[in-house]
Design a protein that fits this description.
single chain, 324 residues, four-stranded antiparallel sheet, 11 helices, 24% strand
């Protein structure tokens, strides 16, 4: 039986033993033939490598028979991950970007420090140069970091379809307990949200995960209704947050063009005769006037009437600026 020529970078037996560990970490189970092919050795050598790993305290289970193979013992705590240079750089870049997206800052910083400490000196210097020279157009966000335990409990509940008991604090500061059949988790604009059937209200609701003080898994099972879209529900819920003014404007454009410019979290868009009806809420109408002017499409204000005055004021200020 022939085997491919060994990779020069893996020609040393110790290197190949570590490469075998890396393969077993990445795959649930591998046959002796697969390992031999990937390592460029014969199956007898694979058995020797498995014994060597066992001597080093890494329990490799050898399964006999026609469908046998090798795997790591379930529940065994693996040694530190072995990353290639490209993988290490990808992890560092992901952590750097995560801080700007609103991921928990303390955990991100500590993970970044740990990865950098184990990088080879030359690569560590290059990564540090990247950190010092990298610029972002997105400002760093002060994320409301949720409890890791709450996140993991909710994720497991969604996968296993198990009801959870929440202790929740609303934006008004009111504490409550409620049973939730979670449909999914959504990360949006620096915030984590859980959406699902809330048994207290009898409706599908959205909850900010950082406001969940505790989540206790229960035993009651449930089914997620067909067609449920957690991302869509969260964005619609955020668009429906109460503000001071109800706004309805007819935009003289197509629905496709409107969707490209106006996120679902900002407004509801409905195709209509003559264009697209944009329905939204606003705390300040002068900001809404600037938004409409920035879209660049002709529009007809349906409500509120006060918005017309703010648009006229904006037009007057722009006319004055143009005359300078």
């Amino acid at each position: 039986m022939s085997h491919p020529a060994p990779d020069p970078g893996r020609s040393h037996p110790t290197t190949r033993v570590l490469a075998m560990l890396e393969l077993l970490q990445a795959h649930h189970r591998m046959t002796g033939a697969d390992l031999a092919r990937r390592l460029g050795v014969d199956e007898r050598t694979v058995r020797r490598y498995a014994a060597r790993l066992d001597d080093l305290g890494v329990p490799v289970v050898a399964e006999r028979g026609r469908y046998g193979g090798y795997r790591l013992m379930p529940g065994y705590k693996l040694p530190p991950l072995m990353l290639t240079d490209d993988e290490a750089v990808a992890v560092v870049l992901g952590l750097l970007a995560g801080r700007r997206l609103g991921l928990p800052g303390q955990a991100t910083e500590s993970a970044l420090a740990k990865v950098q400490r184990v990088l080879p000196a030359a690569l560590r210097d290059r990564v540090q140069a990247l950190r010092e020279t990298l610029g972002f157009t997105l400002a760093a966000r002060d994320a409301a970091a949720p409890s890791t335990g709450v996140l993991l409990t909710l994720a497991a509940a969604v996968r296993e379809r198990r009801r959870v008991r929440l202790r929740y604090r609303s934006w008004q500061g009111a504490d409550s307990e409620r049973d939730l059949d979670p449909y999914g988790l959504v990360f949006h604009s620096g915030r984590w949200y859980a959406t699902g059937h809330d048994h207290r209200s009898g409706e599908v609701r959205t909850f900010r995960v950082d406001r969940i003080a505790s989540a206790e898994p229960g035993t009651a099972a449930y089914e997620i209704p067909a067609g449920v879209d957690p991302v869509g529900h969260v964005t619609r819920s955020l668009a429906g947050v109460p503000y001071a003014h109800e706004v309805e404007v007819l935009l003289q454009t197509t629905l496709e063009q409107a969707r490209r410019r106006i996120p679902a979290t900002v407004a509801t868009l409905t195709e209509s005769a003559g264009g697209v009806v944009m329905t939204t809420r606003a705390e300040h109408l002068d900001g809404m006037a600037r938004m409409l002017a920035g879209l660049g499409w002709p529009f007809v204000i349906r409500r509120p009437d006060e918005l017309r005055g703010h648009v006229r004021d904006l037009a007057r200020r722009l006319d004055e600026q143009a005359g300078r």
